[in-house]
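Running log. JK asked me to keep both predictions on one page so they can be read side by side. First protein, sequence followed by its tokens:
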Amino acid sequence: MLFRRKKIILSVLILLIIGLGIWFLTFAKIYDKKDLSYGVTFSLKEASDLGLDWKNLYIEILDDLKVKKIRLPVYWDLTEPERNIYDWEDIDWQIREAQKRNVQIILVLGERVPRWPECHRPDWAESLDKNERQKELLSFINSAVEYFKDRKNIFAWQVENEPFLKYFGECDELDIEFFDREIALVKKLDSRPIIITDSGELSMWVPAASRADIFGTSMYKRTYSQHFKTYINYPITPAFFRAKKNVISIFAHPQDWIVIELQAEPWCKVPFQSTSVKERSQTMDVEKFKEMLEFSSQTGFREFYLWGVEWWYWEKATQGNGEYWEIAKTLFGK
């Protein structure tokens, strides 16, 4: 009888421990939808590749969508086309137009910044050895921060983009010691927060989050896998991100956690502009767009930067489909 009672008590304790473990892993505050905040990442390179007038699109983002938060990559190859000769005009224009409308900017610095091929190295740097190229990159970052740090609407600096993601992009292997030097340089030059980003589904977050004032994750559900040669739907729920955030919080303590790249465009085998509507719909259509917004709202994050504003406009301007643009309008300018 005593043995049986001890067995029951032990079983209850085990169940309680399991229950508490599950609660710890999945529990996180889920914000009311009215408290969620949205922005976009804008790439002039992507807009130009789609055959769009990137300046016109940018003004539409500001004045029609009424976006109040924008992440802007500073492309090394475009802003230092010749060694030690800088051309800040395009990125300067974007920041000034945003400032006129009280729009908050995240400026992305480094060699690896948003949009394929991820690493945007100028041609003149290709022939340099690693040490010399790193020296030039630090010089570029130094020049960029010094040039832009008086812009009051720059909220934060992002240093590199998903630097610990080994499996994506045409980039050299990460030199962690050098990456830390990049972060230290930006911190030395300015006091605004440093954002470090990582893949939501394919990375462990700790190396990135432990270096970040603000940690930013990507959030994808449907992609084309070059490895498996097929379209995949990640078998994850919002609880996956809540649990991951809770666990990583034990090891890393950034001031804030945001979704820096929320999937809101197709991820096809080839660039989406070269595919059919049917092909694009395998990873993104109107229903999947709405589903992704709902999914993300349950992950315990509060701030989201949507990935795909150039595609929404391309659909509207060249395909006669303004649905994505109109849905996005409901998110911004609150």
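And the second, directly underneath as requested:
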Amino acid sequence: MANLKVSPDIDTLLQSASIEAARNNILDTRSVIICNDGDNIQDKYDEAVALAAGGATNRADLIVMSGTYSGITGTGNNYVSIIGVGNRDYIQIGGITLDVNYGLIENVFSSISMTSNYADIKGVISNTSVSMLENFGDIIDCSATTFLSDIENYGLIEGCESTGTVRSFGGFSSSLNDGTIKNCTASGQDSFGKQGVNGVTQNCTSVNRSFAATSSNASFVRGTYKNCKGGNNSFFGINTDTSGVRTIEATFIDCTAGANSFGFVNFVGAETQFAGSALNCTSGDKGFAAAGTTGGTSKIINGAIIENCVAGSASFGTFNGSFGSYNEGAVLRCRTTEIGATPFSATGTGIVRLCLDGDFDEINLG
């Protein structure tokens, strides 16, 4: 049998390097760097960055095998994809910190911190946080204790979860969703913050004070919320702003919340106006433009429509005694569980049509 010939470069490498180093370098290519357990992942990342030098036309992949690694830090624009191979739980990286990211990050157990993201991030799990200031890519099937708390989202966030008690999915005041968030879950109050006109939040679940819940974390409530579920004081259920009128312009479809939701106010000098629409939604007591006993004013204004919705007592712009609520819009085919009081109201241009009280008696006003 003839002797096997190898190139002089590989022969020199095999003679001078350890078996592990030789194996790693043989597997590396002009666009792929392999990182094995025991390697310095920062060095490997830097090698991949060197391969991707030249900007957006050059890309490189850092393939990370099972192991426990220190962190990765990159400056400037990142064109390196970081891809875990194998069981994600055993591909543990001590943090990925980048400036502007254009590289896929997939199937790793690591915290993430970056300024801007333009690429896909898939299947990343962290027991600390995933954070970025703005997102234009797809973030799919990811989870962290604190997840995207302060973010402007113009891309897609889907199938993700926040497992801690800190507000997530844009819960802080500087955040904005003008993209799509769907099939996501948050376990911390004040999650899912303010939303722009292009924003869609769909099939998401959270706890109390969620979905653009408060005047401190939502300067406006716009876009579409569909099939979302929150607890008490959700869907702009807390307004403490006395500097001007806060307006709800969103469309709510098939959404559910606890008491004091969909435009509740209970603060002297604050005013909330419901100017959007709600279809097939459910609230507890004091839902859909209601005011509490402490003070404040809540109105369903002319042009707003609340249709086929259900709520408890003192809801739908009802004004009685200390409740500063008014209905100048249209409440259609809605039902309240309240018994023994006037459960609906119509002031000015307001109308109530084909609604039912707690005794299932039909109510038509205005």
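Observation for JK regarding the second prediction: The longest helix spans residues 41-51.
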